[in-house]
Amino acid sequence: MADGPVADKVDLKKELSTYTARRGRFDVVEVPRLTYLAVDGHGDPNTAPAYTAAVSSLYPLAYALKFLSKTQLGRDYTVMPLEGLWWSADMESFTSARDKSRWDWTLLVLTPDWLTAEHVETARETVARKGGAPRLDEVRLERLDEGLCVQTLHVGPYDAEGPVLDALHHEFVPAQGLRLTGKHHEIYLGDARRTAPERLRTILRQPVARTS
């Protein structure tokens, strides 16, 4: 157990400036190297059983890790929102086509950098004893170094993202002397189970590089 009182709870959404974005505007930002719980999958997130199983495995582990950090390390923090990396052999699947059956994805939950793979394994054992996390063994700790990115805040249904992404990919990025490099990244600031579709808030992020 940790010695002494637990420090104030850390909220990484408030500490990391790249976890805010502006609606109706594309901003070029520098994203630091960050650590995530991660699990991969393929297919339509609305219908693929692997997607539901991934979420049902990520969050029990995320909360077990938070409890471990608070009780054993004396460092409490707010569990971060769900995030996803999305890609496809044909990137038009995200813009004009929106063919979700062709999507590949990695679901993410941001984790404080003071937590190690050893801490994750200890938390995994706790979750395994309780059961109910079908893809628990597939969740890994991953460092992601996105660097230079363009991002914006999308407000509304996920299926209305297409025109925003089309403008980002084909208008803003080339106009700024940039090119797409990494995987499309979404940060879900609202809970789709409890929020009306028109009020959902999602940060859309795209890693880029300068062309010159």
TrEMBL record:
Species of the source: Cellulomonas algicola
Pfam families in the record: GyrI-like
Coiled coil segments of this chain: none
Protein's UniProt name: GyrI-like small molecule binding domain-containing protein
Domain GyrI-like small molecule binding: 27-204
InterPro entries referenced in this protein's UniProt entry, alphabetically: GyrI-like (IPR029442), GyrI-like_CCH_Lin2189-like (IPR008319), Reg_factor_effector_dom_sf (IPR011256)
Signal peptide positions on this chain: none
